[in-house]
Amino acid sequence: MKNHNLVKTALVSSLVVVSLVGAGCSKSIKPQERKPAKLIKVDNAVSVLNPMAKIALPQGGGRLLNKTAINKKDVIDLQVAIIDRTLIAVSRSGLVAAYALHGGQMLWSVDIGEAVVSGVGVEKDSGTVVVGTRSGKVVAIDANSQAIRWQKTLPSSSLAPALVAHDRVMVSANDGVIYALSTQTGQQVWQFNAQTPEVSLRGVATPLYLDGQTAVFGTADGRIYAINPEIGRPLWNRRVGRAVGGSQVHRMSDVDGQPLVVGHHLYAISVSGQLTGYDTTTGQTMFTASLASNKSLTALGNLLIGASLDGDVVAFDRITGQKMWENSELKYRKLTNPIAIGNYVAVGDLDGVIHVLDNSGKIISRTETKGRLTSLHAQNRHLYTQTTDGVVNVWQF
Predict the structure, then answer these.
(1) Whole-number Cα distances in Å, 397 to 58, 171, 175, 302
(2) 137: which strand partners?
(3) What are the two backbone dihedrals, phi and then psi, of residue 245, each rounded to the nearest 5 degrees?
(4) Number of domains, the chain
(5) With 60 as the cut, is the pLDDT of residue 323 above it?
(6) Domain limits at 281?
(7) Which CATH number fits the domain that encloses residue 248?
(8) Residues forming beta bridges with residue 115, ordered by sequence position
(9) Across the chain, what does the average pLDDT equal?
(10) Cross-strand partners of 368
(11) Helix (H, G, I), strand (E, B), or coil: what is residue 15?
(12) pLDDT tens track for 42-70
């Protein structure tokens, strides 16, 4: 299964550019080069983000895996996590480290000795920190003792942080299987097999803990699945992405962005262009709008905001799905997920620039860091980023 996934990943990596050129385009035709838009100077910039910490992550021992060096051009989204006033991050070469949120000084570190491809999943109550390696190994660390609690090798790796909740470590793997392991021992408790298409985008949606009885997973078959985390029983599923072309590449419908919950409303988006809102109290679809994305959505007041595959930032009414505005100034800049920061929205790009937009879609300020940004995270009026160069930044807003 591992070899199949590697072949599939290589195939998709070479074809995805073609798949985004437009329906009806032959794979034999060289796609038109899409240059990132040049940035326009922001007049009368508003100060929104105040720097708190900048951390250059040290390297671990996982520089080599199966005699193959880590490819520095390989874009991997190593997300950080927060436990109380401590930031947990992991370098690509396998050093998991904890830092004081204020000041950025290192508190402890654990070298797991392998290249890491999925960032930090945590459970605050038990102090469990989980990362995943390229070989498919899931490693659980006790944040209190700073010791490796257990290691478990799965048939496939994952590119998304594990969901750690309800005494379960739930991993949405690249082979289309969701694995649940015991938080205490690492033993497999259950697994759920989603349908696996022959071709899909390289990526996996970060799982979402909805409540004590429900965990939600986005999958490569264009669906979201709700599963009981204790016993693995599927509760319901909804189709989000729909095939829209003749070839396998054009028919990709992955749900790679983490589903978003606001009150009793659930939102999900697919790479094939469907943005769907659901009412969780009735199970009914509220609306379906048009936006193709592999990034998570965010909510700002009554707005639902996403970043398209082409680099448009688009806002919808989160009840009706009506498009409210669209900003196309960041075309082809390989945007991160947008994230609400107070009264504004932030989105990062391939040059490490964070763009801040107001609720009308106007860019009002920019902040720069080093290296390509892959995702943005906000919690307790702090914005967290990690670049592909291994630099973690913390801002207050």
Answers:
(1) 27, 32, 39, 20
(2) 153
(3) -155, 175
(4) 1
(5) yes
(6) 2-396
(7) 2.130.10.10
(8) none
(9) 86
(10) 353
(11) helix
(12) 999 999 999 999 999 998 876 544 444 45
